[in-house]
Amino acid sequence: MEKGVLLIISGPSGSGKGTIVERLVDDLGYRVSISATTRNPRPNEENGVHYFFKTKEEFEKMIEAGELLEHACFCDNYYGTPKEYVERQLGEGNNIILEIEVQGALQVKKKYNDAVLIFTMPPTIAELRRRLVNRGTEDMETIDKRIKRAEEELEYLPQYDYIVINDTVEQAVRDVDCIVRAEKMRCGRNPELKNKFKGDALK
Ligand code: 5GP
């Protein structure tokens, strides 16, 4: 069975990573992990679809019970990845995406050395601000906080494997899928092939 790739996509809110992930899931059959968070739902968000919305106490219980693969505090709220779903998908050979911020991404990389870390950015910071303002889901104070956080997150870029500039969604989705396809062809991911070909040669 072909092994699935554990793909981590990070990037500032407004980088368009959510849309990229949606396309990878809807058009290309990738699986996505649904995170738990203590942030309030936005008007279009549903519990169990976009996030599992939790109280701080519920979230802390999940941490204590060891149910999370990673967790982090981002702009005053907790976010974390439920472990069980990710492990099941990898076991079944599916590509699974975690759309998470940098601290969580680095925690996962420590546990899964072959996780692939992609950082997405819009073409410019001005474009990032424009997208956040147009989205209209955050007030100006939160937008400023998120832009400042985006600048801080850029410090982690050298620890990522790839950067994808999201100029058009179509191209960005193709870029991510190309990365995953190339990753699957890495010799280190296919150690069994050596013996398979050697076995064939002896037949
Ligand atoms: P938002 O509030 O805009 O939905 O998400 C804020 C940030 O938290 C984004 O960078 C998003 O990728 C990140 N995030 C979402 N889920 C998780 C998670 O499970 N773990 C971590 N570490 N970050 C997450």
Explain what the structure shows.
With 203 residues, the protein is of the alpha/beta class. It is built from eight helices and nine strands. The strands form two sheets. The protein has a five-stranded parallel sheet, with helices on both faces. A hairpin with a 2-residue loop joins strand 5 and strand 6. Helix 1 packs across helix 7 and helix 5 runs antiparallel to helix 6. The longest helix has 16 residues. The two termini are 23 Å apart. 28% of the residues are buried. The model has no long low-confidence stretch (mean pLDDT 94). Bound molecules: guanosine-5'-monophosphate.
Entry summary:
With 203 residues, the protein is an alpha/beta fold. The chain has helices spanning 17-28, 56-64, 83-91, 102-111, 125-135, 140-153, 169-184, 192-202; strands at 6-10, 31-32, 36-37, 52-53, 68-74, 77-82, 96-99, 116-121, 162-165. It is globular and about 70 Å long.
Sequence-ordered SSE layout with sheet pairings:
Layout: E1 6-10, H1 17-28, E2 31-32, E3 36-37, E4 52-53, H2 56-64, E5 68-74, E6 77-82, H3 83-91, E7 96-99, H4 102-111, E8 116-121, H5 125-135, H6 140-153, E9 162-165, H7 169-184, H8 192-202
Helix pairs in contact: 1-7, 5-6
The structure holds guanosine-5'-monophosphate.
